[in-house]
Amino acid sequence: MPELPEIEVIRRTLAPLVEGRTLAVRGVGPHDMRARGEGRGAARKARAWMTRRELLDGAIVEIWQCDSWGRYRHPRDGAVPTDVDEGFQGYGQARVGADGVVGFRTIRPAPYVGRTPHIHVKVRHPSFGELSSQLFVEGDPGNSRDFLWRRLSAAERTAVAMKLQPAHQGGLRWQTRHPLVLPV
Q: Does domain 7-182 sit in CATH 2.60.130.10?
């Protein structure tokens, strides 16, 4: 997996974006969201810091996304139990380490009607509260049709576009390392 960029090379910050549906069930396995999920495995690592160049040691990062069939594990999604991937929990939470790094195992983001593949992300820290955003798959053809992607400036798009690369780890097909720079 390529190294995470150092703070000096990052000048873009996460754009605050609509949170979307948060999951009703919290506290399930924090780092590995896949369980027996049907999606293609992906590892995601991030380094989190504020624009003041302070690492966000101890911040809580949550991610959530739909399953490979485009369904969220959320009561308002409208899915019946047979419409969701029972092996994918769809939510993960982890604490940022002293080195500013946090990691998750999940599936490759999938599209659903009206949306391009994306992962919701929320970062919480006592120094600023919380910030919600979304991370998109860099170069996905659906991005140009996504209503949130189209609202972003070129700089904001760069900050929320994660580059998926082939993985060379057991059981994974994709990996990404993405900086989470907060505008605080």
A: yes
Which pTM does this prediction carry?
0.79
pLDDT digits (tens, 9 = 90+) for 39-63: 555 555 555 555 456 778 888 989 9
pLDDT, tens digit, for every residue of 10-39? 446 777 776 655 443 444 444 455 444 555
Radius of gyration for the chain, computed over Cα atoms and rounded to the nearest angstrom:
15
Q: Are 41 and 176 in contact (CB under 8 A)?
A: no
Yes or no: say if 179 and 47 are a contact pair by the CB < 8 Å rule.
Answer: yes
In Å, how far are 6, 81, 93, 111, 178 from 48, measured between CA atoms? Answer: 11, 36, 14, 26, 9
Q: Is 159 helix (H, G, I), strand (E, B) or coil?
A: helix
